[in-house]
């Protein structure tokens, strides 16, 4: 079967993965799944409030932790051990947008990292890179970690105030396709998500085909 799911990861936490996931889910008519949630409010509730395509649905998290911390630490605090083998794709015929937690190498436990979920499920990733001073280094380190693990990367989404010098050097070193640039928005609502989804569909047409 053709692979249609997309795993959204980032160069860190608060990078814009949830916003990007809503945009991609809207663009693809996809369902949303956050396998490991740590902290409230749940990203799934945020995405549900932003996506407006009629077939949208949220799949239940494999782990839902209250503490807003690294999943390995939230799990320990709540007497839970996150086991990679318990993270299995929910049954749905729709493509899934799967959101990680924090960045690529955020630990789930003492062995596994967030990116191991994408590898286990054999789902290609989109990397969200928010532009701040220091983000070039964080983006290139994420690129190196993805490359070392042979994770297929569909492309990059920049988030924040445009910075042509940063974007240019990141694209030069990674060779990633730029799928979208999310600008700083005063209000992120359904209309805003629909607008970016249209742009994403155009930019990513050859990746997502006739979905
Ligand atoms: N381009 C933007 N304009 C305005 N607000 C934004 C933008 N991108 C992200 N935000 C806001 O910044 C905050 C962090 O973004 P978001 O929740 O998408 O990060 P995240 O990468 O999903 O974080 P986490 O690691 O907790 O899942 C949210 O309140 C979100 O609405
Ligand atoms: C609580 C936060 N919003 C995310 N759910 C988890 C972020 C983990 C980051 C861990 C780290 O890189 O130090
Ligand atoms: Mg999020």
From TrEMBL:
GO cellular component labels: cytosol
Key words of the record: ATP-binding, Biotin biosynthesis, Cytoplasm, Ligase, Magnesium, Metal-binding, Nucleotide-binding
Reaction catalysis annotation: (7R,8S)-8-amino-7-(carboxyamino)nonanoate + ATP = (4R,5S)-dethiobiotin + ADP + phosphate + H(+); (7R,8S)-7,8-diammoniononanoate + CO2 + ATP = (4R,5S)-dethiobiotin + ADP + phosphate + 3 H(+)
Protein known as: ATP-dependent dethiobiotin synthetase BioD
Gene: bioD
HAMAP family per the UniProt record, alphabetical: BioD
Subunit note: Homodimer.
Active site positions: 34
Family, per entry: Belongs to the dethiobiotin synthetase family.
Pathway: Cofactor biosynthesis; biotin biosynthesis; biotin from 7,8-diaminononanoate: step 1/2
Pfam families: AAA_26
Obligatory cofactor(s): Mg(2+)
InterPro entries for this protein: DTB_synth_BioD (IPR004472), P-loop_NTPase (IPR027417)
């Amino acid at each position: 079967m053709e692979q249609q799911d997309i795993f959204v990861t980032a160069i860190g936490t608060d990078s814009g993965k949830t916003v990007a996931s809503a945009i991609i889910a809207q663009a693809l008519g996809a369902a949303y799944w956050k396998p490991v949630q740590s902290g409230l409010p749940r990203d799934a509730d945020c995405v549900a409030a932003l996506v407006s395509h009629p077939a949208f649905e949220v799949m239940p998290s494999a782990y839902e932790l209250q503490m807003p911390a690294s999943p390995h630490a939230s799990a320990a605090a709540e007497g839970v051990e996150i086991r990679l083998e318990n993270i299995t794709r929910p049954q749905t015929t729709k493509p899934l947008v799967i959101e990680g937690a924090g960045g690529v190498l955020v630990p789930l436990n003492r062995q596994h990292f967030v990116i191991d979920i994408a590898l286990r499920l054999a789902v290609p990733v989109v990397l969200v890179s928010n532009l701040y001073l220091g983000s070039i280094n964080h983006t290139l380190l994420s690129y190196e970690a993805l490359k070392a693990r042979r994770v297929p990367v569909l492309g990059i989404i920049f988030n924040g105030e445009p910075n042509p010098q940063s974007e240019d050097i990141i694209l030069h070193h990674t060779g990633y396709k730029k799928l979208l640039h999310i600008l700083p928005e005063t209000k992120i609502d359904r209309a805003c998500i629909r607008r970016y989804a249209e742009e994403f569909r155009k930019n990513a047409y050859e990746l997502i085909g006739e979905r």
